[in-house]
Amino acid sequence: MSVLYSLGTIDDFDDILNDIAPGVYQGKTRPHKYLLLLTVINLIEKSNEPENRFSFNKKLIDEFKDTVENFGFDSKIILPEYPYFHLRKSVFWKLKIKNGKEDTFNNYISSKMRFIPSRISETIEYAYFDDRLFNFILIPENRNLLISKLKNIIKELSESEASSPPSLPIPSKFLHEAKALNAIISPFLKSKQIEFIPNYDLYDPSTNYYYECDLIAISQNFVAIIELKHWSGDIKVSSYNWQVNGRFREDPHKPNKYKCQILKSFIEKEFPYLKTPWVESIVVFTNPDANVRNATYYKKPTKNPTFADIGTLIKFFEYKRTNDEKRVLTESDRDKIAAKLREQAEGPRNKTIEIPGYKILENITQNENVIDLLGRVDGFDGLEIEFKTVKRLRVFPIDPELTPEERNKQRKKSLNTLKVLDQVSSHPNLIKVEPVSNDEGLVIEVSNWSDDGTLADVIAKKEKFELKEAVSLIQGILSGLSVLHEEMIVHRDLRPENILMDGDTPKIMNFDYTYIPDDHAPEYSVLPDAKSLKPSPFIAPELYLDGQFSESTDLFSIGVIFYTLLCGTPPFNTSLDLKHSIQLPGKTMAKLDHLEKASSIRDLIQSLVHFDRTKRPQESKDVITTLKNIFTDQKPKIVQPPALNRELKPGDSFRPFEIEKFVGKGREAQVYRAREIDDRKVAIKLFNHNIPKERIVEERRNLEQLNNPYILHFKTLLQWPDGRFFLVTNFIDGPSFRDLINQGNRPD
What we know:
six-stranded antiparallel sheet; five-stranded mixed sheet; flat
């Protein structure tokens, strides 16, 4: 056991300070603990009859805030709850836990929950010093010397903080973009020779449209709009179309130079008395996995340069500063332009993520691991949401600062959902997910979306469900779950937020924490940071405690969801609340007494919501059978998958098109003659369900680029109500070459 060092002289206090383990963030020592220690000693100094007990109250919080601000720190960032709790790791700082709150306190610690003020007030009565240290501090001479030592330490940390480049509050959906902007801007913050404006929306009065600029740089001898490209793989820079991994892409300078014209015009109109410098288009690659050919050498005098990496861009700025003697703007002029641009900005707008083939409509949620978006398939702007043109897109950013090995591992984890669904057969209660190819090398998933939202959204609106509705939903979830369990796949995060509602049909989704049996990829079998999972009533307790799991882990979630559907709220705040009762107490179960067949339902839920996973039912099929036995007079709702690639019949219609005749079919599609407005005839090529969207979009692009009287003219690309895509072209009545060949007719 640690003991307090001897306190014979004031120098012995240095040993006590050395015992403090200050926090470190991004390589910088945090001053929080020293600030709290100084705060408490100041309170002793100000008290006529000091007591060795320091409650987390307004008096202590206000004193801490004053101490923080006196040293020039931000009191909105440096908060007292962190050191108040974590100083307990030092031998001299003790916490008195409230009677009866010992288990709650220990649960918070074991669950790695942050001790926010409400949790401190709930569990901690007060903090206190070791008696020997408190008596030592009561001596005024000792106290004054202690205050002096602490002030010197904090002052050094404050000066170190001031000398470090500040972190830039750059809004961005992508971590790699924010880091790239920081890397470009930080080297020039001290000198202030270049003014930078990140993520700026440039207004074009001629079109009434805003153009996104990743970064605007303004110096005395040039102005530039910098386009960041996070493309990965082999990239060939050329005069017109570039090549990215063998595919042609438009030269990014083309749209960027148009932005430069808008910016130059803006500066000329706002500052007609200034000689406007050249506004340059710069493209820089930010992905460490990019292999760029024909990039610009930073010393080469060329307009609109393209740099292979951020380091070369920074060298270019330095070279321009030291070798270009032409100063078009004064420092004051430069600052005026930057100030005017910032004034014009309406505030930081969310950066639009560009995903090939989709128009982004809404950002659903975002965290450091995944970005959830709603997007509409390109070319469907005139259609309504009910025809499933709106999709859910999940983007998994890759941290560019990781090593190649770590990035590869992160990428594999991001592919978890695709890997799970690749191992199971298609099922109506499992969401269908497909990958989206992109030049940035990101993992992007696309799946159908529903106006109904998730089961959590439905519960929030409806509160309680009728018994038959709840049973039908649980049967659907169990049906999808059984398909996973047959392949030894365990979801581990089954909760209403991870179940999409498509009408009355629940679809399990979000397989980020799913266990996949794979001897060659152990990262799939370990739940990352199991104890750091957010507290939830739906996640089984074993995942918080030891990380062990089985199929019964998902069945625990089924039991809690079933109870929630029937009662309107979960049976507890977190599954760890079961630690002492092991099963749901009688008072909680009594809320089910009004139900038909209440006894059987109680028994089923009680067996599922058990603290010990070995005491629960072990297979989802067993639970399905139990439900059937309870409701022998109620046939379970079984959702049948739609008939694959069924042939349309004359009279079938969608929007302005009505099928008139089946023409024929091939390996990928069926072809029909249809009529539209004014009885005009068109041809509809209806692709099979299994044909990748990328293949269909590519055919559309090819048809769009062709203008030949001997080739069918493309009209539009749409989606039939059953989800199949179809191309619409002009219809030419007559036999095909195949028909003529089969008839023996050959050209002369």
